[in-house]
Design a protein that fits this description.
heterodimer, A: 322 residues, mainly alpha, flat, B: 290 residues, 0% strand
Chain lengths: 322, 290
């Protein structure tokens, strides 16, 4: 890659500007000199590798996935039969396949809590407080921890007679509850872990947005006698709106695509299987590549739809990149 | 606001008292949040220092008999194949981060500094790709990797991390816009070609962006579970995530060993965080908003 670029550029340099103009005037505008051709090729020399990777690992898989979703392929055998919309019909009609969508609701509710908590702490810590940096670090750190480690930490936390039970008994509430034992409390517990893990990210994003607000605004507001709540309502909230809307969209699509924590902690048992866990199991354990692809296409379409709706509702001019 | 102004003078003391009380509640909420963050981690640290009898019999919150009992760490490190895991993770980190930096900066350079007909199309391809969440396409991506014969090699995750990182392209694009084009032009007049400009001017000036990308990418790769789990099932190809995940089997209910393994994985992150705090915050604030 590097060598071809350099070699190409050397010839480019060998044709300096003066000679190129004479060549152009001699042969007319319709004929392109080699120097000009090289100049046109230059951006592509930089883009070859990125585009090749992008197409190979994003566009080819998406296209293949859509194709597999209409077949009964098992992922291994050379023959696959075209089955039309059969896989899609299965996803929406077999209740055990569709049920996983309801698990997302636990995570969706958890993300609501997560955003609220993050917003509160970001607001509070944008003012001057003792140990501000310590609290900032403590709140953000869980986001940086390895997911498998978090899974084990909380498996121990929720164990029968584990940390949570001990803490509750200290506070006088004797519980003998298998937290991961029934679907409702298992999903609540797992969603709680996701709040613990991801609040820090939202917190740092909100904090960054709040700190980019010019300080004079607060000073002016304070001189006018505005309370903290009024400052939040009229200065902070409007200026973090873009990042808030981004967080909400990430929360919705994230709730549909939960995988790591439930897979590590329960393996999807006791009704904690999520959409991605089910897809991975269908594809890699039961070799139902066709059905798994259809499930993945459904998830992809839902996420694209949500993104589209969000872009419609909150037009964000920052996204304009070209 | 007008009511507040009117009532300031008569009840200034009560306002100040209310402010104090509010402040105390704020600190209380911060302390509670810190406890919520620290308690699960502290318990795992305590458990990792207990002997197996202590871990089996004692209460989760009880203290270990000896604070210097590092046997579990030795067991986790050797029986859990953690050395291989750290080696594999380092290998993957090195190649995927270097690749991400080069690819991201080259793409950003080509898009920001050149005018060519398909520019909008290329930009659109990268933009649309951000909307496709990686987890949804793995069923088909798996077939692509398999087709290249890369399944169960360390190159599978390296290529996937390099090829799908659009966030870094955006970060580089934002930074490159801040570099004056007149610098490129001056170098061009001195006879530098596009590649020299990229290497001698753009790359050095992109240092802050490179730091951001290295941090964000480094944390993502170090912590990723999904890709190594799917693409590198062999025991000797474990990364720290998958090696730790395998603790579930052989160590079963030996929480003292599992805890030691978890602490071993968390400690490098903690050290990196303490040393790079400010850059990490900035990195995430920049990375996620783009």
């Amino acid at each position: 890659m590097t060598r071809t670029t350099e070699a190409g550029e050397k010839t480019h340099r060998a044709a300096p500007a003066r000679r190129r103009t004479t060549a152009a005037s001699r042969t007319g505008p319709s004929h392109r000199s080699p120097g000009q051709l090289l100049r046109r090729a230059t951006p592509w020399l930089f883009l070859v590798a990125p585009l090749a990777l992008l197409i190979t690992f994003t566009y080819v898989p998406v296209a293949n996935m859509i194709y597999y979703s209409f077949t009964d392929w098992d992922g291994i055998s050379p023959d696959r039969n075209f089955t039309g919309s059969d896989n899609y019909v299965q996803i929406f009609t077999r209740p055990e396949l569709f049920r996983v969508f309801f698990v997302s609701l636990y995570y969706l509710a958890a993300s609501g809590l997560q955003i609220a908590v993050a917003l509160y702490f970001a607001t509070v810590l944008s003012f001057n407080l003792w140990f501000r940096n310590l609290f900032k670090g403590l709140l953000f750190f869980p986001y940086l921890i390895n997911g498998v480690a978090i899974g084990f930490v909380f498996l121990y936390f929720f164990q029968d007679g584990g940390t949570l039970d001990s803490v509750l008994s200290w506070m006088g509430a004797e519980t003998d509850h298998a937290w991961l034992g029934d679907p409702a409390s298992a999903n609540t517990s797992l969603a709680g872990v996701s709040v613990w893990r991801f609040t820090g990210l939202n917190f740092v994003l909100f904090l960054g947005a709040i700190q980019s607000i010019p300080g004079e605004l607060y000073e002016a507001a304070q001189l006018d006698g505005a309370t903290r709540w009024q400052q939040f309502r009229h200065i902070i909230a409007p200026s973090i709106k873009p990042i808030l809307s981004l967080s909400i969209i990430l929360a919705v699509s994230g709730s549909l695509a939960v995988f790591e924590i439930p897979y590590i902690m329960t393996g999807g048992a006791t009704g904690t299987s999520t959409f991605v866990i089910q897809t991975v199991k269908l594809a890699f354990q039961f070799n139902k590549t066709g059905l798994a692809s259809a499930a993945a296409v459904v998830l992809l379409l839902i996420i694209l739809l949500i993104t589209w709706v969000q872009r419609r509702l909150v037009p964000d001019d920052k996204v304009d990149l070209v | 606001m007008t009511t507040a102004q009117l009532t300031t003078s008569p009840s200034r003391r009560s306002v100040r008292l209310r402010g104090r009380l509010g402040q105390a509640l704020v600190y209380l909420s911060l302390v509670i949040a810190s406890l919520v963050v620290l308690l699960p981690l502290a318990v795992v640290l305590l458990t990792s220092l207990k002997t197996s009898e202590e871990a089996a019999e004692s209460n989760a919150l009880s203290l270990p008999g000896s604070w210097l009992n590092f046997d579990n760490y030795a067991t986790a490190f050797s029986d859990g194949h953690m050395l291989t895991a750290f080696g594999n993770t380092a290998f993957i980190l090195l190649f995927s981060i270097t690749g991400t930096v080069l690819i991201g900066s080259m793409t950003a350079y080509a898009i920001d500094r050149f005018h060519f007909r398909a520019k909008k199309l290329v930009m659109g391809l990268f933009l649309i790709a951000t909307l496709v969440p990686g987890v949804t396409t793995q069923v088909a991506t798996f077939q692509v990797i398999n087709g290249f014969g890369l399944f169960d090699t360390r190159w599978a995750p390296i290529l996937l991390y390099m090829g799908t990182d659009i966030v870094s392209i955006y970060i580089f694009l934002q930074f490159i816009r801040g570099i004056p084009v007149s610098l490129d032009e001056a170098a061009r007049l001195d006879g530098a070609n596009a590649f020299t400009v990229y290497r001698k001017i753009i790359l050095p000036l992109l240092k802050p962006a490179i730091a951001t990308v290295v941090i964000i990418k480094g944390i993502t790769v170090y912590n990723d579970f999904y890709i190594p789990f799917l693409y590198m099932p062999s025991q000797e190809l474990g990364t720290i995530s998958t090696a730790l995940f395998r603790f579930k089997g052989p160590f079963g209910a030996h929480w003292e060993n599992i805890s030691a393994g978890a602490v071993l994985v968390i400690v490098p992150t903690l050290i990196a965080f303490l040393f790079l705090q400010r850059y990490i915050y900035n990195g995430f604030a920049q990375g996620a908003t783009k």
